Request: fold
Amino acid sequence: MTGDPEVYDVAVIGAGVVGSAIARDLSGHAVSVALLDARDDVGDGTSKANTAILHTGFDAKPGTVESRLVRRGYELLSEYAKATGIPVERTGALLVAWTLEELDALPGLRDKAEANGYRHCEPVTAEEVYRQVPALGPGALGGLTVPDESVICSWTTALALATDALARGARLLLGHRVNSVESGDGTTTLHTSRGPVTARWVVNAAGLGADVLDALFGHRRFTVTPRRGELLVYDKLARPLADRIVLPVPSSLGKGVLICPTIYGNVMLGPTAEDLTDRTDTGTSESGLDFLLAKGARLMPRLLEEEITASYAGLRAAIDHDDYLIEPDPDRRYLLVGGIRSTGLTASLAIAEHVRSVLAGSGLALEPRADLPEPPRMPNLGEAFVRPYQDAELIARDSAYGRVICFCERVTEGEIRDALRSPLPPASLNGLARRTRVTNGRCQGFYCKAETGALLAAASASREGNA
Reply:
């Protein structure tokens, strides 16, 4: 690290999965790093509402930065998940053609996958489609398999990367909304809602706000359009209907509605794709519900007989370019990381690797450290793996893991206690839910929210008393 500790070598704006990955990577070098976010938790923006698919990159546009980084990111995140305990379930995916036009498009999609370096797609007949997913509605004409597509916990990924960055020495500055920037002699001061933050380099990984921040640095390179995607989450009893990801054949209008198992044992239907002007509008809508139910009735009628556990919406940072925008401004010591679509979860570690290379090429000295701590070991939120309430040895050592507080999701007192004592404790009940699954089940917290809220309040009071 160099210089005054109050002047960081790099300030990364945006503590989503991409910004956290960048902060983690840079903190592996002899530089001081600050990770800023306007919200009170990491991964609390676009990252928390990702469809949580670990993409092979088979359908990316060949030759793009996105294609290269998704392919590389799949390898890096798969390995990082093993090291940290981020749950990943290799379900595979099946593209289903419902029209002759879609059927004719399948060979081209296979060629596209091979151009992206993925050579495991195979065309299948209608009979094989129904053998793999018997619950599909009538009328499927054929399909294309993508055996290495997987589902992952996007919540745990963002938290693991930020926790790793913190352990490596990065400083996390939550609640720091950047309002203006001021250039100095070799530094930039970010004027935030909680005071100034000064750094020699600034990395803009602000997601939905990346174009606004880019303008503060004097650029007009792109415009972010918040694209709302609404999804329905079906009860765990629906999981046998969809044991793999069911994808539509992409069209000029987008990738369409999919049916996807989740790492938590549920099934998702969605998303919609509605361009908005309000960058905060994550509410669900009656029209979105009607649209998804109509799509579901066609794709998998039996799914609509199951109970909906929840509906939610996320905003994707759609831009007027067809690729990631990772562009430096060496004169201002500023780097834009913009236009990162939903593939950014998969590509996050590769984006960080690429950002490091771009910064080094732009003049930032990055000497690797030899004293890095081991990566954090994250709690398992995956339904396909052993969880604390099922672990007799763990319960024998600590009975708190045998006391279930959230019966819908089988979350124990021990898990909640661990989350509240973790290096990055939650600031809200929603943050606690992303760390443990508490309140996310069929009753949506009706039975456990009071007790969970009391535990959260007690932990917050204890931290304030010790501050």
Summary: The mean pLDDT is 94. The first strand starts at residue 7 and ends at 13.
